[in-house]
Amino acid sequence: MNVKYLWLMCGLLAVAFPCNAQEEQELGCIWYGQSHQIGNHWQNKADREPARALNNPDAEAVFARRCPVFYKEYKGASGQDELKLCCDENQIYAMDAGLSQADGVYSRCPTCTRNMGQTVCAMTCAKNHTLFLTPTNQILENGVEYVESIRYRLTDVTAEKVYNSCAGIQHTQTGRPAMDLGCGGFNAKTCSYRRWYEFMGDVSGDYVPFQITYVWSEDAEEGSQEQYLELFPLECGENYDDSYACACIDCEESCPLTEAPSGPEDPWQIAGLYGVTFIVSLILGLILAVVICWGSLGRTAPPSICMPTLFGEFFYVGFRAWGTFCAKHPVLVLALCSWAIAGISYGIRYMSITTDPVELWAGDQSQTRIEKDYFDQHFGPFYRNNQIFIKAINQSNFTHEAASGLLTFGPAYEYNFLKEVFELQEVIMKLGLDEGEGMDKICYAPVLLAGQTATVDDCLIQSIYGYFQHDMEKFNTTYEDNNGYTINYLNKLEDCLRVPMLEDCFGTYGGPIEPGVAVGGMPKVAVGDDPDYMMATGLVLTFLGKNQNDASKLEPSKKWEKLFVDYLRDYKSDRLDIAYSAERSIQDAIVELSEGEVGTVVISYVVMFIYVAIALGRIRSCCGFLRESRIMLAIGGIVIVLASVTCSLGFWGYMNVTTTMLAIEVIPFLVLAVGVDNIFIMVHTFQRLDHSRFETTHEAIGEAIGQVGPSILQTAGSEFACFAIGALSDMPAVKTFAMYAAAAILLDFLLQITAFVALMAIDERRVLDGRLDMLCCVRTKKKAKEEGPQDVGLLEQMFKNFYSPFLLSKPVKVTVLLIFTVITCLSLMVVPSIEKGLDQEMSMPKNSHVVKYFRYMVDLLAVGAPVYWVLKPGLNFSEQLQQNLICGGVECNNDSLSVQLYTQSRYPEITSLARPASSWLDDYIDWLAIIDCCKYNVTTNGFCLSNSKSDDCLPCEREFTENGLRPTPETFNKFLPYFLFDLPDAECAKAGRASYADAVIYTIDDEGMSTVQDTYFLQYSTTSTTSEEFYSQLREVRRIAGEINDMFVENQVDAEIFAYCVFYIYYEQYLTIWEDALFSLGLSLVAIFVVTLIITGLDITSALIVLFMVICILINMGGMMWAWSINLNAISLVNLVVCVGIGVEFVSHIVRSFKRAEGTAQERARHSLNVTGSSVLSGITLTKFAGIAVLGFSNSQVFQVFYFRMYLGIVLIGAAHGLILLPVLLSCMGPLKRMARASSAPPIAPTTTAT
């Protein structure tokens, strides 16, 4: 609210209300003519003579315009009667000037102003004054008698009707009722017709010439003979014969009958869950339970299954040949790989890292990003917001005795608390001033004149200290009034909190201090209602800074913001509990988050490395530790994994793809967890071989790679495909994460089947030569000999002797199937109930000051962010028909832009629009209608301020249409710049510089005529603090914008409007997050099915089993997200896509082992579980668990929730399905029918860890 508003009154000179003619009585006048001036006001000369003729044509024209009902009656039926009045021409001119001030607020509603005007006329000029007016006269020293005050007898019904006709008028600059300006110390909510009249008759104000005491008919004593003025004013929706009814925005009776917006339809629910999935899950669970129980009786044999392999030999032969080559030429392979790694990794120097939250969360082609860029390019970026939330540690209410009664104040207004807050504000206002880097250099000063240098007092600071004009002496002023009441700062606060647009309450910047921005923590009220600001528990200090599209020009702002943050970080107080944030704080927190997690990520890597180094070897004794360990091979494998990450960074650096620190930290962890699995599988498969069957080491290694290569290709291909699908996301942070991860996964696979194979060959030569691990120059006396297959490891023994017999026993299998059926069906029930969104504080480090700021914002923020309705070029604003599509006043269309926005604001609980939108068009038309507002310099023919008293400044020569409601096109185009340059004051409250200087973009031709291009209409929203509130608001404003654009199309206007708010860009994803999730996950499932189908040689059975298990894992992950309060957003969606890819690892190896085994289904399932299952547990589950567990100690909630919790869920749920459910399902299958070509490859030798 950067506007200089004004306390205007209704009648000011002489105020009363509408009047139909009463029976004329020759009772004389109470005044006639003017006697003298008191201040700026002329006083009326006392008179007791009858009305007399008005013989001034100009004054008669003014009277006819202002008082048409009286004029018509007094001129008689013929219109030729002599006009006799109780006022002369000077009084008529004074009356017109007073009503012109009222026009500045109430002229939007002609019926209101006509009602007001009639009673002003009755009081000022009516022939029968003495019937309802009683004067109190005084005599001047020169003997002239004048009227010092009057008693105005008025019926309550009349006054109430007049008040009601005006009560709905909106002040378009603020979106608040005009009665906020016109009822003295009361706002529209607390005003009444009596309070309104009493304010307008109070001579203590600046605009009332003498005291007008209203005497009400309902207070008259019984039997009183006094007469009261009784009039018959029209309702706001009615119109006088030569006038217009009030428009919809100002009069609800004039609004067309429209249905209230309903918002999104709530889905059918059962017990708080989506009804459809609830019923489907329940029925599916019952059916499966019956099938399981029936099958457990053994009355039907399981069907025979077919697992065909049509061209599996191709992959086996290819990988065997490739492995043999790499193992035979390890030095050459390592040299080539090192050169490739160096060349690709060099691209890191071109890599760019961003911490800009907009660049992280909004894609270039997203609608909100396009709209933001459009707004920034045309109107400039939104202000830089520096804010402090302050709560009182002492939360006790207190009272203050005042003339209006016993006032109760909240703890935010306790004297010592306020004093310390104001002292804090003064310190902040002085930050950097001595060094020439103060707030005056970077602040937003909305009412500063062109060429004027800003001072700190010109800066827009929203703080209740502004009610005291940042003057501690004013705040400390205390005295006792004539009635014995103590008058102090609390009385000032009472007035300003109730009516912030009192001129005495304006801040030093020249505009009002909005209570909804400056105080908070009031008791909750219904959406759209104003809270009781006097019960505030906290205060808000807001320092607005200028923003720039050119980031290089923001250095002064960032320097001051750093001073701001640094000072508040060290600030301590016994009374104040503060939370703060600068515009730069979020970016700083993102950097802090990334840097703060480096230690956590490094520890995670070290834990995985130690585990791999120990588990990879086949250590049998302490004496042979260095001979049997494979620490150097483990190091080499991990280096290869990290090299794949650096290559990914370098590759995308060459491609100029921006990334984030979060991606750089998480991707190595992810790729390490995935890549280590392959290391285990390749090494253990090689160890399981009967080396005596092979003449050379490289042939044995080639055989191992031939056996496991297809399986590794299957998992790597699935993961690559899933990450590639994740790269389809429109969110840059997610998209780049997926792109970098996909490239790292692919490069890791390529390096592992080349460089790591070469390292295996070199390490095996070391073993055969009897050299020690890590001490290659030291050779033992005893050389290693070629061995047969490695003995069964401890873990595999446990599986074989204990776990497999237990799991595959009939009772346990039935129990497992029933438990997984129940869990999966329950998960399916709750998946649609997963909440969407990402809490703001979750994206910050726990110890960041921004986290506390977000929490206090929920408690203390009382008004929502501004919504800008941006209207693109396409309208000719100077034409009345096109004005009618936009404006909200008289003669405007009932479906105009302003009317639609007003109608929507009446349902804030649905639309989240708290107030009607401001409208520069309506204010410009009203401004032009007041003769003294538009002025030009006769010497320069240029612009003059409306409050200029220069003799060279004269009223503009304006022309209006026949009905007088609108300016002609020439007038409109010529004086629009004047309106946008003019500052509001008492005479011209609707001048547009403060409110609209930035809202209208126009061009001026050679003849000085302006043409409006882009413009916006500002509207405040309700308070939004959660993701759901923000995306619901975005959905509603897009619906409203669509309806307005439809209206443009219907009227054949080539214009377009959209709603912009600085926060929308972060929440657009949630409007389509479910559709995006289903699409991405669907593509991922299709991808793994296709990859598995191809790698298994078109074995559709194996592909379907893998697909089914991954779907089950995915459904149970959804259930875990619901139970663990993990919201659905872009980060969790990518993790779900990752879950699909990693889920294949837990399933595919066991399915492949089951397929190659011999015997019954029970025997094959036991074999695959014993051999491959133990490898899955040691090489996949434990490896990932070791790294993931460390993330639980992260300082970042993003790491804890979306990486620790979700990755832990992926590992545990994947392991449960792969090691528990899958073997049970496989054991229930019938005899295996083979349709495979003969293969020279022996069955897969499952790997295990010698533990």
TrEMBL record:
Claim: Disulfide bond is one of the keywords in the record: yes
PROSITE patterns registered for this protein in UniProt: SSD
Record SUPFAM superfamilies: Multidrug efflux transporter AcrB transmembrane domain (SSF82866)
Domain SSD: 597-762
GO terms of molecular function: cholesterol binding
Record localization: Endomembrane system
Catalytic activity reported: cholesterol(in) = cholesterol(out)
Source species, domain of life: Eukaryota
Position of the signal peptide: 1-21
Pfam families linked to this entry: NPC1_MLD (PF22314), NPC1_N (PF16414), Sterol-sensing (PF12349)
Protein name listed in UniProt: NPC intracellular cholesterol transporter 1 homolog 1b
Originating species: Drosophila madeirensis (Fruit fly)
Native organism taxonomy: Eukaryota, Metazoa, Ecdysozoa, Arthropoda, Hexapoda
